[in-house]
Amino acid sequence: MNSARLASNNTKPFNKGSYRRRRLVMIVLACFLSWAGVTLWNQIGKINDRSEKLTALEQKYKETQQTNGITKREIVRLNDPEYVEQKIRKELHYVKQGETLFYVPKEQKR
Which residues form a coiled coil (predicted)? Predict the structure, then answer.
């Protein structure tokens, strides 16, 4: 008889307050998960945009490094008097005394 009495004491009657609290917690949890999902979706979009910008900037950085290397080589070459003379003759059409400069006309495209 004692065992029957203990079994009936362990079962709790249906409690409306406990059910309401659980339902409220589940609603709050669902709202939080919805907010977290929307925030995550927005963050993923921002990350994709930033990664595209990063790729474009990395490409621009590589091009700038190449341009910088070419410019540094040109600076080193400009310290050579022979190169400077050659460049002046070619770009500015200078000639030494006693030399004759001949122009070769470029062919025109029709």
Answer: 47-74
